[in-house]
Design a protein that fits this description.
Layout lengths: L10 E5 L5 E5 L5 E4 L2 E4 L11 E3 L9 E5 L3 H7 L9 H11 L6 E5 L5 H10 L4 E6 L2 H13 L6 E5 L12 E6 L8 H7 E11 L2 H13 L2 E8 L5 E2 L6 E2 L9 E7 L28
Parallel strand pairs: 7-8, 7-10, 8-9, 10-11
Antiparallel strand pairs: 1-2, 1-6, 3-4, 5-6, 11-15, 12-15, 13-14
The structure holds S-adenosylmethionine.
Length: 288
């Protein structure tokens, strides 16, 4: 972990208020312009995260901005994006239920804007790796920019590739994460890339996708197949009106998990004695 001091090229989370907040890269000699004045990066470099500054010109603007160290959720919600992204709560469940962590090797498709890729990349540091694929050049370009900004170039490889059609040389990866229109078509192929006990995770916005993916996972003998939906409600806290907020994101998507296991027929099943071979226990006291 970095020390909590703001340095050149750091990403900072610049917060004016509840609605106005930006993920910005610090460039010496440069500045960030908002409709509430200008923030000079030189005024920030060397200060601790958590500091606050006032926008210039002080006489007419002088608004108070807080400088925070970005959290994983800030990367997701405030990075440049064009595709639908995976929300922080879903990303959290993916991490906890997949076992992805420091040192994990993960294949991801599609990378989209790279929001989930950034989260995965941050969690497999320092010696894990994310191999992320997409079939759209625009997504790849945007994801590469976001990965660069997040300083994850050494942890994440973004490449063109069709996870359904292409053959890759992976073996024994820890997890495969799919967020794409037809994940069920990739199930058989990605099973070959996984290690035994490795996890396949699929994020899909519709139940039809969940069904097809689950059936494909069953056909391919995945184990512990489970699907979940998370609903996150923010709580409004007021002196005499503390309750869930009225507005919320009602649906993001469903998450399906399954594990690759060895699948061999039970050799002992056939050795079980036929019914008539059992000793007749008629008349024997089974309970005293
Ligand atoms: C919803 S976006 C993924 C968003 C991403 N998880 C994020 O958090 O930014 C779906 C992406 O899957 C890609 N895709 C669809 N089919 C694919 C395939 N067969 N192989 C690789 N990528 C694919 C699309 O091009 C699209 O960019």
């Amino acid at each position: 972990m970095d020390a909590g001091i703001i340095k050149e090229n750091d990403l900072i989370f610049l917060v004016l208020d509840e609605r106005r907040r930006w993920l910005v890269e610090v460039k010496a000699g440069d500045s960030f312009h908002t409709h509430r004045g200008i923030i000079e990066f030189d005024d920030l470099i060397g200060k601790p995260f958590g500091t606050c500054v006032f926008s210039k010109p002080y006489e007419t603007q002088g608004y108070k901005f807080y400088i925070l160290k970005p959290l994983a959720s800030d990367y997701i919600l405030f990075m440049s994006r064009k595709t639908q992204i995976v929300y922080p709560e879903d990303a959290g469940l993916i991490l906890i239920y997949s076992g992805i962590g420091p040192g994990s090797t993960v294949i991801e498709a599609g990378c989209g804007s790279g929001a989930l890729t950034c989260i995965l990349g941050n969690f497999v540091r320092p010696n894990g790796h994310i191999y992320s694929y997409d079939i759209r050049e625009k997504s790849l370009k945007r994801a590469r920019i976001n990965i660069e900004k997040a300083n994850l170039n050494e942890i994440v490889s973004i490449q063109y590739g069709d996870i359904i059609l292409d053959e890759f040389n992976y073996r024994n990866v820890d997890a495969v994460v799919l967020d794409m229109a037809q994940p069920w078509k990739a199930v058989e192929k990605v099973k070959g890339y996984l290690k035994l006990s490795g996890i396949l995770v699929s994020f899909s916005p519709t139940i039809e996708q969940v069904k097809k993916t689950t059936f494909a996972m069953r056909e391919n003998n995945f184990f512990e197949i489970n699907s979940y939906e998370l609903l996150k409600r923010r709580i409004q806290v007021k002196e005499s009106a503390t309750r869930p907020e009225v507005r919320m994101i009602g649906h993001s998507g469903y998450l399906t998990f399954g594990r690759k296991v060895e699948n061999i027929e039970n050799p002992y099943q056939e050795k079980k004695p036929e019914k008539e071979e059992f000793i007749n226990l008629d008349g024997m006291p089974l309970k005293s």
